[in-house]
Design brief:
This protein is of the alpha/beta class and 432 residues long. Helix content is 35%, strand content 17%. The protein has a seven-stranded mixed beta sheet, with helices on both faces. The chain has a four-stranded mixed beta sheet with strand order 2-3-4-15. The protein has a four-stranded antiparallel beta sheet with strand order 13-14-17-16, with helices on one face.
């Protein structure tokens, strides 16, 4: 059976070491110690010197001293931090009503119709949730109810949520652990031509152990694995194998959806796929807690024959108002085209940087979702902290934590890209 053995958990990537708290400036150390006292070992912070932010706007975060940091990491505020149109929509609806989801509200229905119209026609039913984790949890339940099976295939460093069901299919959450008995891990598509072969082998292994396939669960940008986007269309043979085996495709669009890849609203569209289930999370609300699962009626009905599903405030009037505002901003500010234009520009600038710095390797991605391989002698963690000192924020990904993950708000500009590249150039030069 395949095992998950990433060298670092997703929470360990660029994590602050609480043993270093006493080395911080007194006021910052006090905040850190207070947090650890209150939250215990579950508290996780970024950077060797954690940051305290007090306000934000667009692609910028401001610390308690008023220093501005360029945000090239946070995809949840998808259309920009504190976007005035989203803030106004939330405030206006909160001032009217925000009520239990078992009451009728036309705004929620309007938003559902608008969202469904962007997806394949067969995906005709939507169920709202509050988070991406809840969405993927429900999707796994839908897949099991429809297929009558429990086997799930995910990639080796995938992350799909933090509920019991989704943690079991999120190998990046663990330092060392065998996959759950019903889960099979396949390598990230660094060699995309082999991806379907790995999926077929995983299906066969499930069968050998008396299990059957329920679902292939992927985000089409393979974000936690290190960002693998190309060539467009390479996922099709794997999905065909899944369907032949009686399983379904769950397209996790929490990170790669809502115009981020630059060519379409949904990441799976780049590959010409027809998912059976699509999941969404907080970027659809610019950080407001809203998620969704979209599927065919026959898949939803198969679950409803065995159990119910209910979520008190999922798809509330405020959530719908915020979701509608996000779609308005994406359309009216042409953020999909911006993601393509700025993403292409940034990837080229990063590839140019790689010709001058041995510490930078391959640059991958689509739109404003980019992965950059880091080579010895530098490390991704050291570069991330060096960029933090230069007031630029990015993250890490990959099974070994050796990929820079760049996924800024969709309003990221060419000048923002230039700032990022200049800071990275300087950081690489300092570590040479």
């Amino acid at each position: 059976m395949a095992t998950g053995d990433p060298k670092q958990s997703i929470l360990a990537l660029n994590a602050f070491d609480p043993a270093r708290a006493t080395a911080l400036a007194p006021e910052l150390a006090q905040l850190v110690q207070r947090r650890y006292r209150l939250f215990g070992s579950a508290s996780v912070l970024f950077y060797e010197r954690p940051l305290e932010f007090v306000r934000a706007q667009g692609c910028w975060l401001y610390d308690a001293g008023g220093t501005a940091y360029l945000d090239a990491y946070n995809n949840v505020p998808s259309v920009g931090h504190c976007h005035p149109r989203v803030v106004a929509a939330a405030a206006a609806q909160l001032a009217q009503i925000n009520v239990h989801s078992r009451y009728l509200h036309a705004g929620t229905l309007d938003y559902a119709e608008r969202l469904l119209a962007t997806l394949p026609a067969a995906l005709a039913n939507i169920t709202f949730t509050c988070t991406g984790s809840e969405s993927n949890d429900l999707a796994l339940r839908l897949a099991a109810g429809y297929s009558g099976a429990t086997g799930v295939i995910v990639t080796e460093a995938a992350y799909h949520g933090n509920t019991a069901l989704t943690t079991a299919v999120s190998p990046s959450s663990f330092l060392q652990r065998c996959a759950s008995p019903h889960v099979r891990l396949v390598p990230a598509p660094a060699a995309p031509e082999l991806f379907a072969d790995h999926v077929v082998a995983a299906i066969a292994d499930l069968e050998r152990h008396g299990l059957h396939l329920s679902a292939l669960l992927i985000d089409s940008i393979f974000s936690s694995d290190g960002v693998f986007a190309d060539p467009a269309g390479f996922l099709q043979p794997a999905v065909e194998a899944v369907h032949r085996a009686g399983g379904v495709l769950i397209a996790d669009e929490v990170q790669c959806g809502f115009a981020r890849t630059g060519t379409a609203l949904w990441g799976f569209e780049r590959h010409g796929l027809q998912p059976d289930i699509v999941t969404m999370g907080k970027p659809m609300g610019n950080g407001y807690p809203i998620g969704a699962v979209v599927t065919r009626a026959d898949i939803l009905d198969a679950l409803r024959e065995r159990e119910g599903y209910f979520n008190t405030f999922a798809g509330s009037p405020v959530a719908a108002a915020v979701g509608n505002a996000v779609l308005d901003v994406i359309e009216q500010e042409d953020l999909m085209a911006n993601a393509m234009r700025v993403g292409n520009y940034l990837r080229q600038r990063l590839r140019d940087l790689a010709t001058r710095h041995a510490g930078i390797g391959a640059v991958r991605g689509a739109g404003l979702f980019i992965g950059v391989d880091v080579r010895s002698p530098v490390s991704a963690a050291s570069l991330i902290n060096a960029l933090r000192e230069r007031r630029v924020l990015i993250g890490a990904a990959g099974r070994a934590g050796d990929v820079l993950k760049i996924r800024p708000p969709l309003c990221f500009s060419v000048s923002d890209a230039d700032l990022l590249v200049a800071a990275l150039d300087e950081a690489l030069g300092a570590q040479a």
